[in-house]
Design brief:
By secondary structure, the protein is of the alpha+beta class. 38% of the residues lie in helices and 22% in strands. It is built from ten helices and seven strands.
């Protein structure tokens, strides 16, 4: 398998949903059962309880997504349509609901590309007991995003612009360091990697923020028979996509509420 576009979308997926609470439960929902001799089978359905007072990270990964991307003509090394689709639906859906939402909104982003078959995703839960553990995990995902994207940017430049086969490009890059990859990009393709979009280099971070939303509302005006439609502004908590460095302290200083204890 040759390298593919495990870049910003990988970081967005891997960063996943981060929750902190006193208790988190996973698994099946118990349903009331009629009294009978068969009721003992409920003993095989214990709740999977996460350790209290930990950060709960739900990591979402695509299954056989390399093949899915190939068959749906994803642009390499990055496809803005795929990244925007994943970012727009990620915050509200995890695993099964994410998959159905991904399929449902496919046409909004891939207008000319029919969906040949539904993609598959799987999820895992990891507990991190300290704020520093969580920050280190997210830093790891962002560093991995950068490493993968740099490799793929050079790899696909060699394939698409120099005419190398995937095997030849892979051989050319084998054992090269980051500086050498940057030199290939600049000297052979006039690409300054630092000028590549931040979404590709840093990935996507979704942060809950208070945003002013303008909505239309019908109101009843005295002495008038019909309701009138007016625009009103409401403050709404919205998941805002950011493409920025989260390894340093600046991000955490700017958004201290992320690590703040629940009141």
């Amino acid at each position: 398998m040759f390298p593919w576009q495990r870049v910003a979308c990988d970081f967005a997926a891997a960063a996943a949903t981060v929750v902190r609470g006193t208790r988190a439960r996973l698994g099946c929902v118990r349903v009331a059962m009629a009294k009978s001799k068969f009721e003992y089978v409920r003993d095989f359905e214990p709740d999977d309880t996460c350790l209290p007072n930990c950060w709960v990270v739900v990591r979402l990964d695509g299954r056989n997504f390399h093949r899915f991307a190939e068959q749906h003509g994803f642009k390499k090394p990055n496809d803005d349509r795929a990244l925007q689709l994943m970012n727009s639906k990620f915050m509200t859906h995890v695993v099964s609901q994410f998959a159905s939402s991904y399929v449902f909104y496919w046409k909004d982003y891939f207008e000319d590309q029919p969906l040949l078959y539904p993609p598959g995703f799987d999820g895992r839960v990891v507990l991190y007991p300290s704020d520093q553990n969580l920050k280190d995990y997210l830093s790891w995902r962002q560093a991995d995003c950068h490493i993968n994207n740099l490799y793929n940017t050079v790899f696909w430049s060699l394939v698409q612009r120099s005419g190398l086969t995937p095997v030849q490009a892979q051989t050319r890059l084998q054992g090269t360091l980051a500086g050498e990859k940057n030199e290939i990009l600049f000297s052979e393709f006039n690409i300054n990697y630092n000028n590549e979009p931040l979404m590709y280099r840093k990935g996507t971070v979704l942060v809950w923020q208070k945003v002013n939303k303008v909505i239309k509302k019908k109101i009843k005006i005295p002495e008038e028979t019909e309701e009138k439609e007016v625009e009103v502004t409401r403050i709404k908590m919205t998941a805002v996509p950011l493409h920025c460095d989260i390894i340093g302290d600046q991000f955490w200083d700017q958004y201290p509420e992320i690590l703040a204890e629940d009141s």
